Automatic annotation (TrEMBL):
Membrane-spanning parts: none
Protein name, entry field: precorrin-2 dehydrogenase
Enzyme Commission numbers on file: 1.3.1.76
Involved pathway(s): Porphyrin-containing compound metabolism; siroheme biosynthesis; sirohydrochlorin from precorrin-2: step 1/1
Length: 220
């Protein structure tokens, strides 16, 4: 499986099943998308999240069976369906309905043997705009979670580094610096211990360190 980052803003995600797993998926996707959860009962924390002002999460109390779940796909018109009930027959029907309608499907109750269009949700950790996603190919979700916790410490400050170097590459481009020299300068900045340390002290410290690194390659 090849990891891809998918922009779900302006899209709707349909979560079938509102238990602990449905709640985790709903909260995750609600960071970006509208989320509709269809279930006969809901996890308490999901109810709280849906009750917040301007919550992107909508709860619909219903218990579709294997025959009627496709009607919810038609009605909600989601980009992605998450099958998160504790009934494998309903989850399988949700999968079939999503694939029939040409939508993505996340089966939460199976690990291997996926059809095209079937996606897994990785463990993710972010220092925005930097995001790292971990999957074990469905083999060990608990390991994905444990690795995610370790990687969190590793990427501290990466968001600020992304912002700084994003700005520098724009400035160097605008100044007409030869592209190969610009790339070398940026590659050195992201590997510079001095710049990483500078970021801990603040943006302007980091900027001074970065300018020193850039001076080594760019004639300005
Ligand atoms: C295939 C996949 C499909 C999908 O959901 O996309 C899937 C499937 C299954 N998970 C199961 C169990 C657990 N899942 C977790 C946790 C997470 N599971 C997530 C993803 C995935 N889970 C996809 C593969 C990811 C990969 O490739 O590694 C994470 C990463 C992302 C998320 O869901 O948000 C999230 C961590 C979030 C975080 O970062 O915190 C824990 C740990 C815990 O709860 O503490 C346990 C218990 C311990 C264990 O079993 O490992 C079971 C067995 C159910 C049963 O026993 O009946 C199945 C079904 C099966 O394996 O058949
Ligand atoms: N992907 C993952 O990370 C994990 C997946 N699982 C799998 O996910 C499934 C769900 O796990 P939990 O959320 O812990 O179970 P749960 O029992 O807490 O939640 C199941 C939810 O589905 C709802 N439901 C039942 N029939 C329904 C129907 N016909 N239509 C809509 N909703 C219906 C129930 O009301 C309940 O809210 C498990 O069966 C397991 O196979 C379990 C743990 C982790």
């Amino acid at each position: 499986m090849i990891p891809l980052y998918h922009d779900l803003s302006e899209e709707t995600v349909l979560v079938v099943g509102g238990g602990a797993v449905g709640r985790r998926k709903a909260l995750n996707f609600a960071e970006e998308a509208r989320v509709v959860v269809v279930s006969p009962a809901f996890d308490d924390r999901l109810v709280e999240a849906a009750a917040e002002d301007d919550s992107p999460i909508g709860l619909v109390r219903a218990a579709p069976n294997a025959d009627s779940v496709s009607a919810w796909v038609d009605r909600v018109d989601p980009a992605l369906v998450v099958a998160a009930t504790d009934d494998p027959a309903v989850n399988a029907a949700a999968e079939a309905a999503a694939l029939d309608a040409g939508r993505l499907i996340n089966r939460t109750d199976v690990s291997g043997g996926r059809d095209p269009g079937s996606v897994v949700v990785p463990a993710t950790v972010a220092d925005d705009p930097v995001r790292v996603a971990v999957s074990t190919g469905g083999r060990s979700p608990a390991l994905s979670k444990a690795l995610r916790e370790r990687i969190g410490a590793e990427i501290e400050g990466a968001g600020a580094m992304a912002e700084l170097t994003g700005e520098l590459r724009e400035e160097l481009s605008a100044a007409g610096v030869d592209p190969e020299i610009r790339r070398e300068a940026i590659r050195r900045v992201v590997r510079s211990e001095g710049v990483w340390k500078g970021l801990q002290k603040g943006r302007s410290k980091a900027r001074i360190e970065a300018d020193n690194v850039i001076e080594e390659v760019v004639d300005r």
